[in-house]
Amino acid sequence: MTRTSIVLLGLLLAACNTSTPAGPPKINAFTATPASLPSGGGSVRLEWDVTGASSLDISGVGSVTPEGRGSKTVNVTASRTFTLTATNSAGSVSKDAAVTVSPAPSISVTPASSAFVAGDPGGSFDAVVTGSSAAVKWSLEGPGSLSSSTGPSVIYTPPAALSVLTTATLTAALEGTGLSASATLSVAPAVLTGGVLFYKADGSGTVGSLGAGGAFTPVKAYAAGGLPAGTTHFGKPYELYELFYSAADGSGALGTFDGTGAFRRLRTYAAGELPAAQDQVVSLNERLVFYKASTGTTLCGSYGPDYGFSNPVTQTGYSKDWNLVVRVNDANGVFFYKQPTGTGGYGTYDAACKWSYVYSSYSLSTNWSHILRTPGGVLFYRQSDGIGALVTFAANGAPTQTGTYVSGQLAKGWEQVVSTPAGVLFYKADGSGELGTFSGNTYAKVKSYAAGELPAGAERLARVGD
Asked: Where does the signal peptide begin and end (predicted)?
């Protein structure tokens, strides 16, 4: 072989040695040790075994020496995945190695807040724990009780009775960690205290309470239809129950207002289930009396087990056109009054709804616009001039005038007057009003409300709750 041939053969062999690799590199192994770390993290050793790579790269770490086997120690503080990428001129391949870091211990309570009413069933609360297997211990600050003191969940039961809106705190503690979380519980009385309903005929309105010094607190607002629409009269056949009555069709509803202002219906009356076209409604002990002015008749009935109006007794022979009919004492005495003439009549109803006409020798002023029972007696108020009188009625109907209020003591023009535990509330539709108390000939003004300080636009007012 000539020298020239030898040189050419060497060049050919050199060319073969620098040819493209047969394929991409191969990652035989890629691991992260340890694969799990406690809260806070720690050191992790990354190890690899790679064949045929011209370069190696680890995500978050950078380039490493492309040897067959290698390792690198890194610090890991949060769960993450490392990706090893091996490359040569024929391509690249990748492999992942995951490291899990346990989260820091934490605890929360769900729901974080909840509202309850005294006497209602309770509600369940859960402790949501991460990063710890420690036991959960529950505690309660405030009224009510818990189903357990330990465990992942607990049931809170509100107290059977409560007089004022109260806040309780439910706490879940993660034992041995110093960690805890709380839920706020709002607990309302079963019945609204000092409640007044400002009602509009479309079924909208506002329920609020009158507190010390006459401070008015709105409790719940109702959009149109939120309350029975078309109500013409309110009644209170039971001490804590409220009747909505529509004279247009004899429909209505019976229920209570709880401490949150929510109306809880006990019974809805379809059209005709109550007597229709009645002009006055009087609440007696567990009975109702309906009076119709055009015929001079009454319907007195009681309530069945389902609160249905039952066993109505029709009474005839009353005078027609009484304008105001009011219960005036604890003897189930009912007073009838005619505004144009100032005449009046008095009688009582027994447990069987039998009427006894007792007294008619009344000499009264004309055109009293409002007659209402108050703790101190029956208040007569005349809207046109602001005069008033306080009268008590004996069981036999005999009246005793205990107070006289001349024009100027009471303002004139009040459109609605209602007795509340805080005093007598006088109201105008612009949201203005006045709260006062009566004793003898003295009227004591408790608070005046400028226009808008009370809910405006109310067409009827009613005392609700206790």
From this structure: 1-22
Domain tally for the chain?
3
Q: How many residues does the chain have?
A: 466
- Tokens describing residue 202: 């479309």
On the 0-12 / 13-18 / 19+ scale of CB atoms within 10 A, 135 is middle
Give the DSSP letter of residue 417.
Answer: E
d(CA 247, CA 235): 13
Identify the burial level of 464 via C-beta atoms within 10 angstroms of its C-beta, where 0-12 means exposed, 13-18 middle and 19 or more buried: buried
Does residue 72 belong to any structural domain of this protein? yes
Q: 214 with 119, same domain?
A: no
Residue 8 belongs to some domain of the structure: no
pLDDT in tens, 353-406: 888 988 887 889 999 999 999 999 999 999 999 999 999 999 999 999 999 999
Residues 59 and 135 grouped into a single domain: no
DSSP 300-359: EEEE-TT--EEEEEEE--PPS---EEEE-STT-EEEEE-TTT--EEEEEE-TT--EEEEE
How far CA 429 is from CA of 150, 218, 383, in Å, comes to: 55, 16, 14
What CATH number does the domain containing 56 carry? 2.60.40.10
Model confidence, pTM: 0.72
61: CB partners within 8 A, 6+ apart = 46, 72, 74, 82
Q: Is the peptide bond before 105 cis (omega within 30 degrees of 0)?
A: no
List helix spans (H) across 81-211: none
> What is the domain range of residue 175?
106-188
* 9 three-class SS: helix
Shared domain check, 424 and 381: yes
Number of DSSP helices (H) and strands (E) in the chain, helices first? 1, 40
Look at residues 367, 370, 363 and name the one whose alpha carbon lies nearest to residue 417. 370
pLDDT tens digits, 129-142: 998 899 999 999 99
What is the C-alpha to C-alpha distance for residues 424 and 447, in angstroms, rounded to an integer?
11
* Same domain, residue pair 46 and 160: no
- Confidence class of residue 352 from pLDDT cuts 50, 70 and 90? confident
**Which of 199-208, 274-283, 312-321, 416-425 has the least mean pLDDT?**
312-321
Name residue, tokens 């329920």.
207
Looking at residue 459, which CATH number applies to its domain? 2.130.10.10
Residue 10 lies in a domain: no
